[in-house]
Every structure is written in structure tokens, then in C-alpha cells.
Specification:
Rossmann fold, 5-stranded parallel beta sheet, binds iron/sulfur cluster, iron-sulfur
Length: 413
């Protein structure tokens, strides 16, 4: 356990914080606004103890970046278990270059503590939330961003099969107020289940006031909203709108039988002032629901006029993921996790369908055409048929794709 006493006793003067070279921007659209928020909070904590701090994103140039900074301790963060390789790489380099203790924390460290210790070769693994830093304002001086990340809750009120939240944050805790934490104009909430916050009305009212006073410009939630809470408290839709939330997502992890509930949840958002095209349903695929049913869910989303935000399932103890969407010849379970109810072909097809679907929703078109997207058909033709329905378009544009039907897997139909 890292404690104030231990740190003081260890006579630490300089601490290096390391974010491994995670493929955030390249691979993960869902995590494009990722910040090593745990490290930023640790930085605030260490600075409160008069310890000098430096944050680096690990790359091959570690030596150069730290030539004027000799750390007494190194903190490395971790993210998904299947990105453990990036953590190992960062730890090994730190061990090689600095003869000081290396501590790893974060999601992978919490979910697979033993594996993390052995695989990365670090000195200590910190599992769970670092309580002493939890309520401190992250040290945004270390990063150049115009947004901030806030957690108003820890844990979740639910316990879904595919989710590791319960293991990392077993207690559900809600903050009553966040207004003193606001230091940027754009706020991204990293709550697992924001609407389940016991004081959500108070939090949204605070944000609404800050929005009126022009102290914030917009808010976003990284996770999908729990629509069951929205059904119980439909007035939250209007509060979300007034608080400046954009691109709301409704989580739809269950079966097609939930379609009416999902429609009701979307209707609450629409009646609260959100446009259907800015709403998404957040779906998990490559899991228990097979391809055909996921396609049926996608088509329902099309009927509601909303986009899909997708997440490919990987098991909580998966330690690698080399899925490559550009591999035309396909990949196997040796490359990445493929659920027994899915195939590599279905995963790629579903991903393509979602992409085409979302383009149609965003552009307001009734069909998608790869050749039109790549500007390979005459612009006059593309303009002329931009607003026609799929059947008309198909007569002139050979690769027109219809978002309104379920596209069967060609290998199983
Ligand atoms: S609602 Fe979301 S965060 Fe909560 S347990 Fe289910 S998947 Fe995890």
C-alpha cells in the first residue's frame, strides 16, 4: 500500500509517472479522449508532499526525455488487460534505465495483479482505486488538453457478465457535488453508470447553472447511459440537455426483445431536445448475442434514426489483442479473441455494417455506397442520387448498400 508515511519514510524527492504507449488514437475511437487520470491524481497527491513530478508517454526516447530528471520511484499506469504488452514494455525500459522501484496501477494491474507482477517484472502492483488521491483535482498542468475527466461515481449498481467494474470498484459510491472540481470548459464523464449516481439531479443542476454562466461549454459521457434509470426518471433527459450533454449514448447490451424499452429510452432523449442522429445505442458484440440478432438490433436502431457505438468484447483476462481491421484475408483466434458464437468474418462484417449505418445516419442518406464515399463515381451522379431511396439508387450505383435490412453472413445464409 502506498501511504503518506511510506512515501515520507522513503525520502522520495522525484517521481516519474509513465503512460505506456497505448494505441489509443490509432485503435480506439471509444477512448480518443483518454487521459492517464489516475497518474494526474497521483501527481496532485505527490506534489502536496513536495515531491517533484514528471509525466511522460513512454516511447523509445525514454532516456532523452528524462535526462534532466532522475526519479526515486516510477509509477506506471495500465489500462485494458489485452494491452498488457505496452505496460511490460514501459516497465522493462524503466527498470533498465533507472535503478528504482517501479509501481504499476490501473485496470490491468487491478484485474490481474499476479499476472501483472510476473509478466511486467515491476516491483509492486497497486490494485484498486488509490484512495488518498481519489478526491484530489487531477494535475492538468501535466497535459495539454482543453477538457477534463470527472468521475461522479465509483462502481456500478449492476453486475453484468462482461464487465469487470465490480472487481475493481466493488462499492458503489456517489458524489453529491462536483462544481468545485470544474477547471475546464469541456467535461468528459468517466462514470461507469452516471445516471445511477444517487445525487444525479443535483449534479445535473450544478452543470446547468455552470452552462448558463458560460463556465462550461459541453459535457459528454464516455459510457452509455443506463436507460432503465432514464425510464424511471424521464425528467433526467431534459436535465442532461440543459446541462450541455452532447452525443448521448443508450446502452443496449440485452437481446432484441428489449427493442421497445430502447425505443422508449430514445424517445425520452428526443423529447428532451436531442436529435436522433446525435444519439447512439452502445452495443457489445462478439459476445453471447450472435451476429444475426446483433444485425436485427442494428436495424432497429436504423428505424429509430440513431447511430451505433460499438464495443468488441474481449474477456477480462485476455492479455493480447492483435485484431487488424485491414487484414483482408482474415485472422484467427491466435490473433485475437473470437467468441464461440461468432466468426472472424462476422466480426468484420458487423463492423462494416455499423460504419456504413453510421455514415447514412450522419449524412441523412437512405443508402451507403463505398464508391461514392471514395469519390469513384461522377460527382454529378452522386449529387443527383444523394436523396433517393435505396431501390432507386441501386439501379445506378452498383455498390449501394441498404441500412434498413439485416445483412446475413454470406457464409451461413
Ligand atoms: S451497467 Fe455497465 S458498468 Fe454497470 S456492470 Fe453493467 S456493463 Fe458494467
Amino acid at each position: 500500500m502506498i501511504t503518506k508515511k511510506l512515501i515520507k519514510r522513503s525520502n522520495i524527492k522525484h517521481a516519474l509517472l509513465v503512460e505506456p504507449n497505448f494505441p489509443i488514437a490509432k485503435k480506439s475511437r471509444n477512448h480518443h479522449d483518454f487521459l492517464p487520470i489516475g497518474l494526474l491524481k497521483i501527481s496532485s497527491y505527490l506534489k502536496s508532499l513536495d515531491i517533484n513530478v514528471k509525466l511522460i508517454r513512454y516511447d523509445e526516447d525514454l532516456v532523452n526525455e528524462t535526462k534532466d530528471f532522475k526519479p526515486d520511484v516510477v509509477f506506471v499506469t495500465s489500462l485494458f488487460t489485452y494491452w498488457s504488452n505496452f505496460v511490460k514494455e514501459a516497465v522493462e525500459s524503466c527498470k533498465k534505465n533507472f535503478n528504482v522501484p517501479v509501481i504499476v496501477g490501473g485496470i490491468y494491474a487491478s484485474l490481474m495483479t499476479e499476472h501483472c507482477k510476473e509478466f511486467t517484472g515491476c516491483d509492486y502492483v497497486y490494485s484498486g482505486v488509490f484512495e488518498e488521491a481519489e478526491n484530489l483535482i487531477p494535475d492538468y498542468d501535466l497535459v495539454d488538453v482543453d477538457y477534463q475527466i470527472i468521475h461522479t461515481t465509483r462502481g456500478c449498481i449492476r453486475k453484468c457478465d462482461a464487465c469487470g467494474v465490480y472487481e475493481i470498484e466493488p462499492k458503489f459510491l456517489s458524489k453529491k457535488s462536483i462544481k468545485k472540481e470544474i477547471v475546464k470548459k469541456k467535461i468528459v464523464f468517466y462514470d461507469n453508470n452516471l445516471l445511477a449516481n444517487r445525487f444525479i439531479e443535483n449534479i445535473l443542476n450544478e452543470l446547468r447553472e455552470l452552462k448558463i454562466e458560460k463556465k462550461i461549454s459541453y459535457c459528454e459521457s464516455q459510457s452509455g447511459f443506463d436507460g432503465r434509470v432514464l425510464i424511471k426518471k424521464p425528467y433526467l433527459g431534459k436535465l442532461l440537455k440543459e446541462a450541455g450533454f452532447k452525443n448521448p449514448k443508450i446502452a443496449w447490451d440485452g437481446s432484441i426483445d428489449e427493442k421497445e424499452d430502447i425505443e422508449n429510452q430514445i424517445n425520452i432523449l428526443v423529447e428532451s431536445g436531442f436529435k436522433p442522429s446525435e444519439i447512439s445505442v452502445f452495443v457489445l458484440y462478439n459476445f453471447e448475442i450472435p451476429y444475426d440478432e446483433m444485425e436485427a438490433k442494428r436495424v432497429e436502431a436504423w428505424k429509430y434514426g440513431v447511430q451505433i457505438s460499438d464495443c468488441r468484447f474481449r474477456p477480462l483476462d485476455s492479455t493480447f489483442d492483435n485484431y487488424n481491421s485491414h487484414k483482408r484475408e482474415g485472422q484467427s483466434i491466435k490473433d485475437y479473441y473470437i467468441h464461440p458464437k461468432w466468426s472472424d468474418g462476422e466480426i468484420r462484417l458487423f463492423r462494416r455494417n455499423i460504419r456504413s449505418h453510421n455514415i447514412c445516419v450522419r449524412l441523412g442518406t437512405k443508402y451507403y455506397s463505398p464508391s461514392a464515399e471514395r469519390k469513384r463515381i461522377p460527382i454529378v451522379l452522386a449529387k443527383k442520387f444523394r436523396d433517393v431511396d435505396y431501390t432507386t439508387a441501386k439501379k445506378y450505383i452498383k455498390d449501394a448498400w441498404d441500412p434498413a435490412i439485416c445483412h446475413k453472413n454470406p457464409l451461413t445464409r
